[in-house]
Amino acid sequence: MRLLFIRGVIMNLENPSKENMSYILEQLGERLDVVNRTILDPEDYDLNKYDELKLMYEIVVQKGRLSASEAQAFIEELRSVRKN
C-alpha cells in the first residue's frame, strides 16, 4: 500500500474516491502541462473509471519527463475516459 502525505492529509490512492480522483487529475494536468484545464474537471469523470485514471497517473509519474507527442497521447486518452 502506497500512502501519500498531501496538504497535511494522508491519502491512499488505492481507494477510489472523488478526492483521490481530483488529486490524480490535478497532478496529470501539471505533469502533462495541460493548458485547457477544463478537460480535467473531476465532475466530468465517472468514479468507475478511477482505475484507468490511476494507471495513467502512475505511468506518467514513473516515466517522469514526457515528449510532446507522449503528453498529447495521454491528453487524448484522458478525453476518451471522460463522461460523454
Polypeptide structure, described:
The chain is mainly α and about 80 residues long. It has one domain. The protein has a two-stranded antiparallel sheet. Strand 1 and strand 2 form a beta hairpin. The longest helix has 14 residues. The radius of gyration is 12 Å and the shape is globular. The chain starts with a strand and ends with a helix. The mean pLDDT is about 90.
In short:
The chain is built from three helices and two strands; from the N terminus they run ββααα. It is mainly alpha-helical and 84 residues long.
Number of domains as seen in the coordinates: 1
| N/C terminus separation | 32 Å
Sequence of strands across the biggest β-sheet: 1-2
The pLDDT mean sits at 89
Number of helices: 3
The amount of helix comes to: 40-55%
Overall geometry = globular
Count of DSSP strands = 2
What fraction strand?
A: 5-15%
Gyration radius from CA atoms, angstroms? 12 Å
Low-confidence stretches: none
Main beta sheet, described? 2 strands, antiparallel
SS content category: mainly alpha
Instruction: Spell the H/E element sequence.
Output: EEHHH
InterPro entries: UPF0435 (IPR009507)
